[in-house]
Each structure stands twice: as C-alpha cells, then as structure tokens.
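User: New here, please read:
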Amino acid sequence: MQKKLSPLSKLFILLIFLILYTPIFFLIFYSFNSAGNMYEFEGFTLDWYKELFGDTRLLIIVLNTLVIALLSSLLSTIIGVLGALWIHNVRSRKRQNTLLSLNNVLIVSPDVIIGASFLILFTMAGIRLGFYSVLLSHIAFSVPIVVLLVLPKLQEMSPTLVDAARDLGASRWNVLTKVILPYITPGIFAGFFMALTYSLDDFAVTFFVTGNGFSTLSVEIYSLARRGISLNINALSTLLFLFTLVLVIVYYFIAQRHHRPAGMGGKK
C-alpha cells in the first residue's frame, strides 16, 4: 500500500515545479508577443515563428543538431549495450567495480574538462573541428549513460533464463537476440532517449569542439543571446522544449507498453 503525501509535502512539490517551469512558460508566452520585447505583452503574433522558419541558416543548424543527436544516440546505444554486456559478464567482482568506476568518470567529470580534453585530442590527432568532432564527442559522453541504464536490467535478469535457453539448444547468438535483448529492451530505450536528450541539450562540450561553418542549436542560442534580447530565441527555445516533451511522451508510452501486466495483453 502506497503512503499518501502530506499536504505540506504536496505544497513543497508544487513549489518546486513552479520554480522549474515558470521560466519556461514565461519564455513560451513571450514568444507570441508582437511588441518584440519581454517587458510588456502588446498582442498575439506568430511573426517570430515565421521569421524563424524563414531563416535558412538556422534551419540548417536545426538539421545539424538533429542528425548529430540521432546518430550519436544510435551509435552510443549500440556501444553502450555491448559495454554493459561485457561488464556484466566479467567474473571478477573487483574488476567489474573498476570498469564501472572508469565508466562513471565521464559522467561525474565537469563538461568543461571533457570539452577541453576532446579539443586537445582532436587538435593533436589532426582531426578538423566540425561535424565529426562533435559527433565523436557526443558518442563518448553518451556511452556511459547508456551503460548505467542497461546494466541494472542485466543484473535484474535471472541467470536461469539463459541456462534454460542453452539447455534447449540455443546458440550464443540466439540467447543474445531472443532472450537477453528482449528482456533489457526497456533499458535500451531509456538509454537511447537519455542519450538523445543529452545530445540535444549539450552546450559546454559542443562549444569546445565546433569549428567554423558548423554549429548546433545550443551554441547558436548562446550566440543569439549574447547579441541581445530577441524573441527569435524564445520561438526557437519553445520548439526545442516541445520536441523534448514529445520525446518524453513517446518514451513514457514505450515504457508503459513493456511494463503492462501479462493479463492485459502486453509484455511482462
């Protein structure tokens, strides 16, 4: 039986949500302001969105951001799943903890340090800063996140499932594709969507590894904000927030589908 929250706890949670979401709703509200500022609301208009969609350079940057996010999320998910399987299959507990600690270093390290490190690495390796440097950086900081989300599902899985499949004559490939991967699918989806969100959101690392002629949304919004207040930033940020919201909703329905009770016709 779940414990009910006290009125004070509910009030505290409501206050936290207000602090978090009020600036976002304030930004969205003024993206429709015809006055062109964030001081007084003169009237409703879609001019800032029309101007945004008429900016070819900005649309290219949006496309760059989406391509980087999707590619890095897909590749980091594949690498992260393989890494989680490898760590899970390590017999030595001490070695397993060492690998987990090394995996966690990139998560707890400051973004500025990671970005500067990648900048030095790419410069020394002679890799030109641009699309590939940003892609490699995003894959690198997304892989540990995927590992951390997939590994608990592997540890949760009963070894008897694998043993039963092997006793029935299943090959290693069949065990992997028909037993292990279906079981850890929720963790894989969680890792993919988390990596996608991190890639779309990242600024610090991307700022270090972008070159001339290539940019992402986070870096572009920062550049626009430095020039002064423009409601183009509000419109762009609103669309980015809505896109992220759609991702969260999609992930929620995928997670619900995999956690639906067997009696309801879904997967257990």
Notes: Confidence is low (pLDDT under 50) at residues 261-268. The two ends are 21 Å apart (CA to CA). The domain at 52-264 is CATH 1.10.3720.10 (MetI-like fold).
